[in-house]
Amino acid sequence: MAEVEYPERSLEQPSSLQRWSWGAMLLNVIWGLKHNVDLALLTLIPVVGLVIPFILGAKGNAWAWKNLEWKSVEQFEKSQANWALWGFVAWFFIAVALFIPVAKGIMEFKWSHSKVYQETIEEFLTLDKIKIILGDKARADLYEVKKLSGRRLRLGFRIKGTRSTSKARFHIMEIAGHWAVYRITIYEPSGKSVVDFPLPHDMLMYGPGKKMGERPQLTENYNVIVVNAGNARILHLARVINELNPEISVTEAVELVRFAPQRIYSGATEQGALKMKQKLEDFGAVVELKKGLSGQ
């Protein structure tokens, strides 16, 4: 490239002419239009445009000094410093904007291939209720991973069958070093209602829409009792009981679930208890209700 020739000026040339021009490199086209450097427009051309910003970075200060009139060296230096500052600010926000979808994609890829997601999806898509809503040959596509707390996540996914398309969510928590699903929700195609599939340990955690310790004060209530785990995973349920009740070891919890009737909630209304019973039975457990007094 030909040597840059500077016009005769009364101002002494600034020492920064040989420095790298970050403003010209980072804001190439905009900087070029402002400083009458037509070469900057080549940045818009594929392949060639990859090289031009570096040429601008090397020669930018010299061309800016040549092409515009400056009142003083200080004005020139300040102007180019501002261009550099705004260049870094612009690329910072560009980097953040690019990082978010990339990080989201990595997270979704990780969880879509996780054991807890793959195993639950496999069982979930075979449920009779899911087949009724979506039809046969349903398949899932994970699109959301949201952190709810240090040990709880929500996995959102689209499900498509021969009959319709909908969305669903798995709520998962870390238990004894392993991730487990504690609630499944599917949004019906109309979007106006949902079908919940709480797992047994979801009832242990929250009861019928209440957090632990928030038992309704009623003169009559219904105790929800797991007679046996039925087709539910014994060890899986035992680990959850252990997590929520540390005084009960996993071994003891296995014995409770497998051999002894276990009350998992007290103080439910009849309507709430019946709803819980149905949901637990959907999961495979054998459940009965026992009418009792408040606080039992």
Helix-strand layout with pairing:
Elements: H1 22-26, H2 28-34, H3 52-67, H4 73-112, H5 115-124, H6 128-134, E1 139-149, E2 152-160, E3 165-175, E4 178-187, E5 194-196, H7 200-206, E6 220-228, H8 234-244, H9 250-259, E7 262-268, H10 270-283, E8 286-293
Antiparallel strand pairs: 1-2, 2-3, 3-4, 4-5, 6-7, 6-8
Key words describing this protein structure:
single chain, 296 residues, alpha+beta, Nuclear Transport Factor 2, Chain: A, Ribosomal Protein L30, Chain: A, 3 domains, five-stranded antiparallel beta sheet, 10 helices
Kindly estimate the percentage of residues that lie in beta strands according to DSSP. Answer: 15-25%
- What pattern of helices and strands is seen along the backbone? HHHHHHEEEEEHEHHEHE
How far apart lie the N and C ends?
90 Å
- Any idea what the radius of gyration is? 33 Å
Main sheet: strand order: 1-2-3-4-5
Structural class: alpha+beta
Helix content: 40-55%
Regarding quaternary structure, what we see is single chain
Shape, principal axes of CA atoms: elongated
Helix count equals: 10
Unreliable residue runs: 198-219
In round numbers, the mean pLDDT is 75
Domain unit count? 3
Tell me how many strands there are. Answer: 8
Query: How does the major sheet shape up?
Result: 5 strands, antiparallel
